[in-house]
Amino acid sequence: MAKNIVIIGGGIVGLSAAYFLQKEGHQITVIDKSDITAGASFVNAGYITPSHIIPMASPGKISQGIKWMFNSSSPFYMKPRWDMDFFKWSWYFHKSSTDAKVEKAIPVIKEINLLSFDLFRQMKASGDLGDFQLEKKGLLMLYQTQKSYDHEMQVAKRADFLGLEVKELNKEDIAKLEPNIKINAEGAIHYECDGHTTPTEVMPKLMQYLTSVGVVIKKNEEVTDITSSNQKITTIKTSKASYNADEVVLAAGSWSGKLSKKLKLNLSLQAGKGYRINVERPTGITIPAILMESSMAVTPMQGFTRFAGTMEFSGINNIVRKERVNAIANGAKRFYSEFEITQEEREAAKTGLRPVSPDGLPYIGKSGSFDNLTFATGHAMMGWSLGPATGKLVAEIIDGKKTSMDISAFHPDRKFR
């Protein structure tokens, strides 16, 4: 039976949920506080990453963050501040960062990434969005030191064991793959299983398609209150109107935690700010890469090359820190010595906020407190990669169908012990 569904959040996750729900005949309204032209769904590296099998919450990450806490240009920056939610999240993150929990998360992360890659392909094959960049050139993990090589080889061996396509490359192999730019690297692990897109191309096309099939997209409307009765959400109030819904999907990214509090729910979530610099001139780069010692990503997109990186925990804000932008530019120079990111390109840098759960896994599933509330948030650095899979799973959850994969690890009410 067709339902009236309100999706809070118009990023890749919210729009993907709208895409699959409207396919099932539901009436969808998407509400977003912005004009949906910026943020994490536009600023990301565009990766579809089955190779990213290790969650952010892994052994040594918190101690690394504390070590870098007073260096605002570090790749993993945690701004010192008095914030009880942040303290609790940090403690949960610490408790989640064990070998046993990482081991348990690996196959689940792999499965949802592969599901999402397949759905990206289906979306392109359908012609719904017209043509858009979707390439499978893999991902080069470029390294300069033995330490980085040893670390990545552990991941590569596990990925290979799980059936993912992985190859080890030397300097000569890299030069053959990327003949048009000099790369200062000792070697690379090539995850041939990975793909990439151009987010700034996909997002407008997805919105245009949704609008054409009757999905209502409300931009520049901030949710101000959510009321409930008898374990059901009854009304969603915004800065402009009020909405009633049979089902509600909370896909508001880094704002999901704040909105959850309106329902007296404590969804542990922190905003992890990322940065990007676009270079709209030929670079010679044709294959996506992660520069390991620089802790940053490089992606050849439609019409430009994107340099992206950093994870900054400083609360919800869109402040562009010049030192972090410069760290990305300098990190690129370290690997591409003959290439320079200009001052003008640096000044045009943008940021986006990624919603990070304490264990690095997304929140996908029905709330135990409200019968008509489904969570779809907390994807950390994999939001773009996991958008379509999350949308598909949300549609299956709301329709009461068997989900495409076991989603128990993503339960929004899970405890962090």
* Total of helices: 12
Q: Which percent range describes the beta-strand content?
A: 15-25%
Number of strands: 21
**CATH fourth-tier homologous superfamily:** FAD/NAD(P)-binding domain
Rounded to the nearest angstrom, the distance between the terminal CA atoms is: 40 Å
- Under the CATH scheme, which class? Alpha Beta
Question: Major sheet, described briefly?
Answer: 9 strands, mixed
| Low-pLDDT segments | none
Which percent range fits the helix content? 25-40%
Class per helix and strand makeup: alpha/beta
CATH architectural category:
3-Layer(bba) Sandwich
Shape: globular
Rg, nearest Å: 21 Å
Average pLDDT number:
94
CATH topology, which one? FAD/NAD(P)-binding domain
Number of domains: 1
This entry's quaternary arrangement is single chain
